[in-house]
Amino acid sequence: MKAIRIGIIGIGNMGTQHARYLRAGTVRDAELIAVCDINPARREWARQNFPGIEVFETADDLFKHPNLDGVIIAVPHYGHPDLAQTALQQDLHVLIEKPAGVFTKAVRQMNRAAKESGRVFSIMYNQRANPLYQKLRDLIHSGELGPIRRTNWIITSWYRSQSYYDSGDWRATWAGEGGGVLINQDPHQLDLWQWTTGLMPIRVRAFCGFGKYHNIEVEDDVTAFVEYENGGTGVFVTSTAEAPGTNRFEIVGDRGKIVIENGQMTFWRLRMSEREFNRTYRGGFGQPEAWECRVPVVGQEGNHQAITQNWVDAIIHGCALIAPGEEGIAGLEISNAMHLSAWLNDWVSIPVDEDVYWTELQKRIATSKRHQHKMNLHLDVDGTF
Hints:
This protein is of the alpha/beta class and about 375 residues long. About 35% of the residues lie in helices and about 25% in strands. It is built from 13 helices and 15 strands. A nine-stranded mixed β-sheet has the order 14-13-12-11-7-10-9-8-15. A six-stranded parallel β-sheet has the order 3-2-1-4-5-6, with helices on both faces. Strand 2, helix 2 (about 40-50) and strand 3 form a beta-alpha-beta unit. The two termini are about 35 Å apart.
C-alpha cells in the first residue's frame, strides 16, 4: 500500500521534531510532503532543511494540497480544535498535539466532527506508549491492586525560569496559552492519571497560585484534591518553581500500593486484602503481610514516533489507536475543573459546566497581556511551544 502523505501545521519546537523523524524515515509507510507556518523564518528554515517538500504560509493553503492524506497539528493550544475540524471536513486524517484544546466545549465539537468524518483521529499522548504506564494500567485493570482508595501524583519536575516565560509574548497568558502548568506541562500526567486507573474524578477542589513564583498571569503552582465515585480520593500537586523537582505517582488499593518514581515501579502487594484482614484479624497492632515487588517493565519508553506510527498503522491497517483523539477531553476536563475551582474558590463537579467555564475564561482573556491574540485561529498557526 502507498505511503500516507502527511502535512504538518506549525513547525515550531514540536512540529520541527515531527518533521525531522518523518523526514528521516523512522515511521513506516509515512511520507512528509508539506508544512506550513505563519513565521517566515520557520518557512525558510523548512525550505533549507527539507528540500523537496512544499511550504505554505497558512493552514488553508496547505489543506488545498491535492495529495495530502493526513495532517499533524502542532500549533498553540487554542488552534487545535478549530484546525482539526477543518482538516476532518477536508477528509484528512488528523493527529493533534496535546492538549486537545483549552476548553472542553470546543473539544467536544471537535470530537463530534471526528466521529462524523470517519477519519482516523489521534492525539500525541506518547506516554501511553510507555511500557511503565502500560504495565500500571494492566495491573490496575486486571484487579491486582483491588479497588482503588487513593491516588497521589506529585509532578514538580517542570522548573522554569522567568527568562523562559519572557521568551514569547504568548507564553503564560490566558489569551496566548489558556493557562499555565496545567495546560502546558501537565497534559500527559492528567491523561495518565485517569487512563491508568480507570477513574475520573466526580468533583474537584483546587488551589492555584496564579503568578505565585513568576511574573506571569496564569498558574505556576497547583494543589488539587479530588473525589471519585467509588469513595476514593486523590491529590495532584504540580509546579514550575521547585528545584529539584519530584515525579512520584502513588496508587493505593485494597491489595496494596504501587509507586512509580525515577522510572521504576514498586508494588507493595498484600498477601491478604486489607478488608479481609480487617474482618478476620484478632490481634492488636498487626497489619497485612506485604511483599515489596520490583515490577519488571519490558520495552522502550514511549516516544512521539510510536504514536505517529500507530496513527499511520490505524489508517492503513485499521489497528486500534493507542491514543484516540476523542479521549483527549478527559484530562482537559480535569484541568478545566481545577481552574474553575480556583476561580470560584469552591468545589466543582465533573462534568464541568462548560458555559460557566467559558464565561470565566473570557474574563481573563479580556485582561490578558496578550491583547493581540487572534480568535480567528486559522491565522494563528505558529507552532512554537
